[in-house]
């Protein structure tokens, strides 16, 4: 199956699943987090057209990595976090977050917890991949906050993505990977997914 056909197939399957679930989750806040998660998966799956391997719910040791993208410009661990928006009235929300490279500055609070989580996921994945492929593998930590507008004032060791900014990771100028190393990394990731529960999913440029 070509890269384009695979990406379109995955998108159609995602849309059908969302359509079936929509009647169940209307007016139910318990489904909002799942909506965000599925939206991130759909956007990242589109990277298969660009030659990326994408993995979801990857099982680590005492943690689960939300999403992983592997491509010619590196390995990326993508953490997705939901934060409730602040209502201003008339259904309008205040959804702008400022990133200064070290803190996330929301309208009424400042936090680092989700940055720390994204960092932990990337560090564990880097160590695990290094031990399995027999070479040092740098994993870049990314964080996405679905529904929030991002104002990146400074860069940090965790890259903060806006909701429609997923293609941005393909432009990051980081250490490139050889085709051989991409194949080795993808093989190890897929093998761990197969050994895990069915919740682990992946797609790529077959």
Number of helices: 4
Secondary-structure class: alpha/beta
Q: Tell me the helix content.
A: 25-40%
> What string, H for helix and E for strand, traces the elements in order?
HHEEEEEEEEHEEEHE
Overall shape: globular
* Order of adjacent strands in the largest pleated sheet: 11-9-3-2-1-12
Features:
4-stranded mixed beta sheet, about 210 residues, 4 helices, about 25% strand, alpha/beta, 12 strands, 6-stranded mixed beta sheet
Can you describe this structure?
With 206 residues, the protein is α/β, with parallel strands linked by helices. The chain has one domain. Helices cover 36% and strands 26% of the residues. The strands form three sheets. The chain has a six-stranded mixed beta sheet, with helices on both faces. A four-stranded mixed beta sheet has the order 8-7-6-10. Strands 4-5 form a two-stranded antiparallel ribbon. Helix 1 runs antiparallel to helix 2 (32-45). It is globular, with a radius of gyration of 17 Å. The termini are close together. Residues 24-32 have low confidence and may be disordered.
